[in-house]
């Protein structure tokens, strides 16, 4: 991916210098709410409960500061360029519809972070919090993407950011609020399907960014699209479930299967039209 000469975003908030100890969750309502958020984000809710059991009384505290490596600093710069590129893309697309794109902030953190959606550990993976309109990522996730999920490459890394920006776009469009309202009025199986459709639309929006970024700024190199498709496939619910427990339960999917994630990313990158990303109107997601 050709990114080195791209514009750097001014919306990156670097919190990598401080680590926060866990708050007391205590197994109460706070833990339940955070567990639900983690599950909706496709993470493992048990990290919340394990953390609550191991934490001590008292407020948040900062652990000793750590120095970022040269490799991490380069990744941070890369993230800033990709974020800037999504800003340019979505500003143009919103302008075409006569509306204004509000840029999200992106928070870099190490280990754990406090967001408006609650306390989160790096084990959750990258996430978007609609309450503060911020994206959160621990750069160590990219090593997981490369080694654990077998999805290396800078464009695979860019896809992850573009997907989370896709959730921000859904928030600005009012789609997220509508889906969450519908989820509160239905059973768990239907709520999971709505979550899948929401995630697949974010995949499609990631493809929209790739389409326009390449057409306007020629960012793609040979093999880049394959990197993103591999990443989408590698973090499909079916593949992750099979790796974790040896079998798959489709009714518990929250992000979509590998095939679904690939299909909708391709829909976005091939059409470049957000109107073609209506996963909620599709007979099957």
Automatic annotation (TrEMBL):
Transmembrane helix as a keyword of this entry, yes or no, is yes
Q: Where in the cell is it found?
A: Membrane
Provide the Gene Ontology terms for cellular component.
membrane
InterPro entries per record: Uncharacterised_pept_Zn_put
Q: Which UniProt keywords apply?
A: Membrane, Transmembrane, Transmembrane helix
Residue ranges, compositional bias (Basic and acidic residues): 1-17
Leader sequence segment: none
Which protein are we looking at? Neutral zinc metallopeptidase
């Amino acid at each position: 991916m050709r990114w080195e000469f791209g514009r750097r975003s001014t919306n990156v908030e670097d919190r990598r210098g401080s680590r926060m100890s866990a708050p007391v969750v205590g197994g109460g309502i706070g833990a339940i709410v955070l567990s639900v958020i983690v599950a909706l984000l496709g993470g493992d809710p048990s990290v919340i409960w394990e953390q609550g059991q191991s934490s001590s009384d008292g407020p948040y505290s900062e652990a000793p500061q750590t120095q970022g490596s040269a490799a991490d600093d380069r990744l941070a710069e890369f993230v800033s360029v990709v974020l800037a590129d999504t800003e340019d893309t979505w500003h143009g697309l919103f302008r075409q519809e006569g509306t204004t794109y509000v840029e999200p902030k992106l928070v870099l953190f190490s280990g754990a972070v406090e967001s408006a959606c609650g306390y989160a550990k790096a084990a959750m993976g990258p996430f978007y919090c609609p309450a503060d309109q911020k994206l959160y990522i621990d750069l160590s996730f990219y090593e997981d993407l490369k080694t654990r999920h077998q999805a290396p490459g800078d464009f695979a890394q860019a896809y992850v950011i573009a997907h989370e920006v896709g959730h921000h776009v859904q928030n600005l469009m009012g789609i997220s609020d509508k889906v969450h309202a519908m989820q509160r009025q239905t059973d768990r199986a239907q709520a999971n399907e709505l979550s899948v459709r929401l995630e697949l639309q974010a995949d499609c929006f990631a493809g929209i960014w790739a389409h326009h970024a390449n057409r306007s700024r020629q960012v793609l190199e040979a093999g880049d699209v394959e990197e993103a498709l591999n990443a989408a496939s590698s973090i499909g619910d079916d593949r992750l479930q099979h790796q974790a427990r040896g079998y798959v339960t489709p009714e518990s999917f929250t992000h979509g299967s590998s095939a679904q994630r690939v299909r909708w990313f391709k829909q976005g990158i091939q059409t470049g039209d957000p109107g073609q990303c209506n996963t909620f109107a599709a007979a099957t997601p």
